[in-house]
Amino acid sequence: MGVTVRQKVKGRGKPWWVFVSHNGRRTSKRVGDKDSAEAVAGQIRARLKLGEFDFDKEKKKQKKIPLFKHFAQGFMETYSAMNHKPSTRESYQSALDNHINPVFGDMPLDAITRKDIKDFLNEKQKEQRVFDKKEKKFKKKRLSAASVRNLRAYLSCILSEALDDEWIQSNPASRTGKLIKKQDRARGINPFTWEEKSLFEGTVKKL
């Protein structure tokens, strides 16, 4: 018989877990902080000694990790509704519908990895075929760096809420902004030639 309390990833704060191993059967239970987990572990140890701990019932009672699209919908209806302007909410919803949910929507929150986020950001920076409704044909289009940064920010904000609600142990989208290329601010700027520079300076001096 064994009942242990620990984090799934050491040093990652909440949540703490209670792991139960008894007669070749195992289960685990997610609890908030360490003190709460220790209290739950004590109760489970007592029930095991009395033969009152039912593995099958405990597994059925465990909360199922929601899919990203369902959590995101709840995020929009609660957090976003209370904290974002209508224009910001529209931007979030558009990003979810057109970019984020098609990739992450059907994944459980705890299944999304840092590599998944990196692959998503890299793919969004590539040239893609987009259907133009007005011209009724496909065109090649590349999202701007600013648009990709917004997608990362929206995704990270939603996952931060999932972390705060203890559905996940860390935010896989954090510190991924470095993967987004910076805008070339010099693009489109035509600097003076030396002759034009001299002519310009001479003209200014005469004014």
Q: How many distinct beta strands? A: 5
CATH topology of the largest domain: DNA polymerase, domain 1
In helices, the fraction of residues equals 40-55%
Query: Order of strands across the biggest sheet?
Result: 1-2-3
Rounded radius of gyration (Å): 26 Å
Total domain units? 2
Oligomerization category of the chains in this entry: single chain
- List unreliable stretches of 5+ residues: 184-189, 192-197, 203-207
The CA-CA distance between the termini, in Å, is: 93 Å
CATH architecture verdict of the largest domain = Orthogonal Bundle
The profile of the biggest β sheet is: 3 strands, antiparallel
Mean pLDDT metric: 79
Q: Can you say what the CATH homologous superfamily of the largest domain is? A: Tyrosine recombinase, N-terminal domain
Structural class: alpha+beta
> Count the helices. How many?
7
* CATH classification class of the largest domain: Mainly Alpha
The gross shape turns out to be elongated
Strand content: 5-15%
Describe the structure.
There is one protein chain. With 207 residues, the protein is of the alpha+beta class. The protein has 2 domains: 2-61, no CATH class; 68-179, Tyrosine recombinase, N-terminal domain (DNA polymerase, domain 1, Orthogonal Bundle), CATH 1.10.150. It is built from 7 helices and 5 strands; from the N terminus they run E-E-E-H-H-H-H-H-E-E-H-H. It has helices spanning 34-50, 55-61, 68-83, 86-104, 114-124, 145-164, 194-206, and strands at 2-6, 16-22, 25-31, 128-132, 137-141. A hairpin with a 4-residue loop joins strand 4 (128-132) and strand 5 (137-141). Helix 3 packs antiparallel against helix 4 (86-104). It is elongated and about 75 Å long.
